[in-house]
């Protein structure tokens, strides 16, 4: 069998991955009689004890509705809820918590912005997205375009899986109103150069939204440095709970946008003659919010901040490097997306094998990956494939798990060969 031994790099030995893994109880289990190797982090990352404990403590010690309770539990819940908002504000370096809106996730955040910007659009206007977008950053814009007469225009990508900057430059024109682009591709792992794109857009008065769902698990964004108008991400990919996400928006734009939903927290005063809206950020937070989930997201960010970020990123880089080294050990394996600047995500195909078969057979060996079109059908069409197998690493994965993945792929390849 092919030798998979590769010496650990100095960067990974500086990061105590075994200590970190003990913070994630789910990783210690067996699946199909094998130790779990969880490599589906791009779909949803696992949760540390710090998050589980924070949510448990909320429910055990302080659960109440927030903001208007005239009692101690209400005060505790409100303090924890708004404390989490401040944690998120600091995480993205927003100017104010007024600019941090709780949503159900990235998808709802994009829909909120698209609907809020619809009044600015008219027939003939153009919305730029990239060919590598997740459906959540395509479909809402198509729905708004159909409503307003605007047009969604895709920026091309190169065969290597990088944004085609010539395509971007050629598409910018006087009709361009919105640029909505992913920070990191969920399929390719490509890190897009969003800052210079935003700078060019700003010169033309184009509004910008960045989908950060796949970026935030790997590095901290700085929305003021990026200069974007909106930045969105989900908690569950950031080692936090499901059911909650974040919309950062510049306060002036949020003030000008109409509410997305009505009822509850988003109102100032209601009468049958006229209803007025609450101040930011509550104007966009109708109904009882996901309080425990916000607390959990805050705990996830606090946990990440307790780690050595530089060592963590170096460890993730080593995982991807190891995987790239081992590709040649699997005959017929081809990587989809070879951008120079990537997070640790690898999409691939193996000649003669269907991606779903690869996923099923790896699962029998305790290895969890993702297969299919990854909610990126236009990108699959670009590469001429129905789908791919995708492994997405997190800082709690090990070089040994990379080796197990490729040992598993070798077994599958030999079985079908």
TrEMBL record:
Keyword Transferase on entry: yes
InterPro entries xref list: Aminotrans_V_dom, Aminotrans_V_PyrdxlP_BS, Cys_dSase_SufS, PyrdxlP-dep_Trfase, PyrdxlP-dep_Trfase_major, PyrdxlP-dep_Trfase_small
One MF annotation (Gene Ontology) recorded for this entry: pyridoxal phosphate binding
Chain ranges of the Aminotransferase class V domain: 37-405
GO biological process, alphabetically ordered: cysteine metabolic process
Catalytic activity, reaction form: (sulfur carrier)-H + L-cysteine = (sulfur carrier)-SH + L-alanine
Keyword annotations from UniProtKB, A to Z: Lyase, Pyridoxal phosphate, Transferase
The enzyme's E.C. designation: 2.8.1.7
Cofactor or coenzyme needed: pyridoxal 5'-phosphate
Family label: Belongs to the class-V pyridoxal-phosphate-dependent aminotransferase family. Csd subfamily.
Function noted in UniProt: Catalyzes the removal of elemental sulfur and selenium atoms from L-cysteine, L-cystine, L-selenocysteine, and L-selenocystine to produce L-alanine.
Annotated protein name in UniProt: Cysteine desulfurase
Highest classification ranks of the organism: Bacteria, Pseudomonadati, Pseudomonadota, Gammaproteobacteria, Pseudomonadales
